[in-house]
Amino acid sequence: MKKRSFFQKLTGGVPLNDDFDDFEEEQDPAPRPGLPGREQAAQRVMSYHEEEPTEGQLPIDMYQTQDEIIIRTFIAGVRPDEMNVSISRDMVVIEGSRQEREQVTDGDYFSRELFWGSFTRTILLPEEVDVDTCTATAKDGLLTLVLPKLDKARQTKLKVRVG
Within its chain, how far is the Cα of 113 from the centroid? Predict the structure, then answer.
């Protein structure tokens, strides 16, 4: 058995009566009815959005300093009243919704890649944080959460009261 070359895989060319060894069984995609120009592009846009999940994923950056855990995420197009941030000692949940401000019919789109609708992200924290002193700020479409770490080595002395 002979393996297909990269060029043959790229172009789809296979010599007649030639067996080849491949890990995957190759199948041609189902033929689509030919729509001229703009209508065909609109059909691709509509089929792309039919396959999308119902809830969006929120990408994040999370890093630490000596005293804090910082989480950053893009929330462009989301108003503060359309978002909820919940923090516990070991977890952060960011929920919200990004709504389109104007209605455009699917046939008028040339490209449609932005996500509109509800999103959520649950983040397990690598260390416990002090929930009472956490802060959240939004500037230029970037949400920044500053989560102070709990100081487990900190000790206090208690006075014992009699009575």
Answer: 13
- DSSP strand E in the chain: where? 56-57, 61-64, 68-74, 83-87, 91-98, 117-124, 135-139, 142-148
| Tokens, residue 88 | 């516990």
Residue 11 is predicted with a pLDDT of 62
Whole-angstrom CA distances from 97 to 104, 115, 151 are 19, 10, 35
Structure confidence at residue 130 (pLDDT): 93
**Positions in the chain short of pLDDT 50:** 35, 42, 44-50, 52
Report the candidate in 146, 139, 147 with the shortest Cα–Cα distance to residue 75.
Answer: 139
pLDDT value, residue 13: 63
Q: In the prediction, which pLDDT does 135 show?
A: 95
Name the one residue in this structure whose structure tokens are 């401000």. Answer: 101
Helix, coil or strand: residue 43: helix
Strand 56-57, strand 61-64: pairing: unpaired
Q: Which domains does the chain have, with CATH numbers?
A: 6-50 (no CATH), 56-148 (2.60.40.790)
Tell the residue number behind the tokens 């699917």, with chain if given.
106
CA distance 59 to 75: 10
